[in-house]
């Protein structure tokens, strides 16, 4: 197969994938924007919460700052607000009292769980509109793609 065919296949697949993701985003954007705006948090603060959610253990402030692309001072101000809202817990590192470690509180986790549930419900609604045979094909295709990209994360 000539490389131009591969390039065209990649381009065409990327275009379809982009249109698919853009369609999903457009269908969910108003509801998601309203929900996130209601939190009265900045985008950087929301990103901090998502990073802390992804971590399995508490992280130092500098690690969080690096993960969200903020200066240590800016991250510290954001963390202060999140601690004040009781979404984040800040504690001294047991091995080095100069280091402050951060983790989500139950309230912070509940806020994110609400967001994840809303996204899941939105996606379920989109998928429910598809004919059953298309849903089955779509699920199998996505599972195959995910297996290729990241075999340890796939559940059928």
TrEMBL record:
InterPro entries per the UniProt record, alphabetical: HTH_MarR-typ (IPR000835), MarR/SlyA-like (IPR039422), Tscrpt_reg_MarR-type_CS (IPR023187), WH-like_DNA-bd_sf (IPR036388), WH_DNA-bd_sf (IPR036390)
Gene3D superfamilies reported in the protein's UniProt record: Winged helix-like DNA-binding domain superfamily/Winged helix DNA-binding domain (1.10.10.10)
SUPFAM superfamilies referenced in this protein's UniProt entry, alphabetically: Winged helix' DNA-binding domain (SSF46785)
GO molecular function terms attached to this record: DNA binding; DNA-binding transcription factor activity
Name of the protein this chain belongs to: DNA-binding MarR family transcriptional regulator
Keyword Protein biosynthesis: no
Residue ranges of domain HTH marR-type in the record: 14-147
Species classification: Bacteria, Bacillati, Actinomycetota, Actinomycetes, Mycobacteriales
Pfam families linked: MarR_2 (PF12802)
């Amino acid at each position: 197969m000539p490389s131009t065919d591969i390039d065209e296949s990649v381009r065409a697949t990327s275009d379809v994938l982009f249109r698919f993701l853009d369609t999903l985003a457009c269908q969910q954007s108003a509801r998601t924007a309203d929900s996130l705006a209601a939190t009265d948090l900045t985008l950087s603060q929301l990103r901090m919460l998502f990073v802390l959610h992804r971590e399995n253990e508490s992280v130092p402030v500098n690690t969080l700052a690096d993960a969200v692309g903020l200066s240590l001072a800016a991250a510290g101000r954001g963390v202060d607000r999140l601690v004040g809202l009781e979404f984040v817990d800040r504690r001294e590192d047991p091995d080095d009292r100069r280091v402050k470690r951060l983790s989500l509180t139950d309230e912070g986790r509940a806020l994110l769980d609400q967001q994840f549930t809303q996204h899941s419900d939105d996606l379920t609604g989109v998928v429910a509109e598809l004919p059953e045979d298309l849903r089955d094909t779509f699920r199998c295709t996505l599972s195959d793609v995910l297996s290729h990209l990241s075999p340890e994360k796939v559940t059928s």
